[in-house]
Amino acid sequence: MDFSTVELSPEDEAFRSEVREFLSSIVTEDVIRRDRETGDNFDEGVHLALGSAGYLEKEWKTEADGGFSRVRRRIWELEKRRAEVPWVTWGTTAMVARSVAKFASPEIRDDVLRGVFDGTVRLCLGYTEPEGGSDVATCKTRAIRDGDQWVINGSKMFTTGAHNCQYVFLITNTDPDAPKHKSLTMFLVPLDSDGIEIQGIRTVDGDRTNIVYYSDVRVDDKYRLGDVNGGWTVVREPLDAEHGAVAAADDGLADVAIMMHQAGFMAEAADNVAALVGRSGAVDDGSVAYRLGRSVARLEASLSSPSIFGRVALAQTMRDIAPDLMDIAGSVAALPIGADGGADDRSEYVYRFAPLVGIYGGTLEVFRNMIAQHVLGLGKPNYSAPKAKAS
Ligand SMILES: Cc1cc2nc3c(=O)[nH]c(=O)nc-3n(C[C@H](O)[C@H](O)[C@H](O)COP(=O)(O)OP(=O)(O)OC[C@H]3O[C@@H](n4cnc5c(N)ncnc54)[C@H](O)[C@@H]3O)c2cc1C
């Protein structure tokens, strides 16, 4: 790992000031308050402003294609986090847009990408179904061909951002008799199609996600991505990206693991709680100092854990230290952020957020199995019942 400091050129420093000023002008207190109320993690005004200023396109494209240089990309990402730009829907949009660029028919590709760059087109992920999400290839949502169209029936659970998006990147089953990885076909389904019903769900941390029902939804074949029954090839890349199973750039300018954004809330809560007990003098109590020190040590270790290990370490640490942080802060931590008389230390939010961070994009159990199997070479997990002891 490279811990050296990056010296910014005067131009890059000017870029940092420019984006800091721009972001603070669009991510207002009103935006933050509204986002907490809706749980959307998306603000259309902010998103359109980012699009019309050209930032979405620059973030999405590589430097060779006219995007940010590596240093500016890093500055941009850090400044966005500092400003608390709502991030979820751009995350799914950027990921799916890569599959659109690679697999969409020319009839829709350029239009969709143009909209992605100016912010008017947003894309969400329709993988998980009510009966299970860990194994996305076990898909029951059916698509049946009818001439130049497909008829889709089924339901998808946790389609985050669907109500703010124009298309869903939908996994469907087009051949129930085939082996599961050869039965899938991907579509970019327009969310204003007849037969789609989006119902909101609020999660324990206040985020909004959705269950989406598809009843006889008709989709033109031009919205198919990749080959019929070749959906696994299309969906593998975004799944790997979401799992953080892609090699990090070795220039030290990338996050060491995915979910660093979420980890930032944990780091902030730890800082806030340390400041709180420092001010109150409670830190002089040996047990408070010990538990705070242990939490910060765990936090630092998780922030330094790379790739797939980092994904597990961050989410597990969040789960483990959030109760300690709340306890150390005392009864004031029971009040949510923004509540009268609260300390706004965020430990309470991190406590509610932690379970989700270990679920979406793949659960911790699934990730631990991936590490065991693919990194440690321990073979496939064996879920059979233990053998009865010989009597
Ligand atoms: C806030 C939030 C947002 C989400 N957003 C989206 C989204 O935008 N689009 C989308 O498609 N999905 C989304 N998801 C769904 C998410 O990806 C799934 O919840 C996750 O993959 C787990 O699937 P599941 O909930 O169906 O649990 P299941 O797969 O049913 O698992 C149940 C339990 O069994 C365990 N388990 C399952 N398989 C294994 C295994 N092989 N080895 C060991 N243990 C196993 C799991 O760890 C878990 O504890 C979101 C989820 C949340 C909570």
Quick recap of the structure?
It contains 13 helices and 8 strands.
Low-confidence stretches at least 5 residues in length (pLDDT < 50)? none
Classification by helices and strands:
alpha+beta
- The percentage helix is 40-55%
Q: How large is the count of helical segments?
A: 13
Sheet with the most strands, sense and barrel status: 4 strands, mixed
Which CATH C-level class of the largest domain is it? Mainly Alpha
- The third-level CATH topology of the largest domain is Butyryl-CoA Dehydrogenase, subunit A, domain 3
Oligomer: single chain
Q: What do we call the CATH homologous superfamily of the largest domain?
A: Butyryl-CoA Dehydrogenase, subunit A, domain 3
Whole-angstrom Rg: 23 Å
Describe the protein's architecture and organization.
Strand 6 and strand 7 form a beta hairpin. It is built from 13 helices and 8 strands. The mean pLDDT is 94. The strands form 2 sheets. Strands 1-4-5-8 form a 4-stranded mixed beta sheet. The chain has a 4-stranded antiparallel beta sheet with strand order 2-3-7-6, with no helix packed on it. Helix 9 runs antiparallel to helix 10. The protein is globular, with a radius of gyration of 23 Å. The chain starts with 9 loop residues before the first helix and ends in a 16-residue tail after the last helix. It has 3 domains: 76 residues, no CATH class; 115 residues, Butyryl-CoA Dehydrogenase, subunit A, domain 2 (Beta Barrel); 116 residues, Butyryl-CoA Dehydrogenase, subunit A, domain 3 (Up-down Bundle), CATH 1.20.140.10. It is α+β, with helices and mostly antiparallel strands and 391 residues long. The structure holds flavin-adenine dinucleotide. Flavin-adenine dinucleotide binds next to strand 1 and helix 13. Belongs to the acyl-CoA dehydrogenase family.
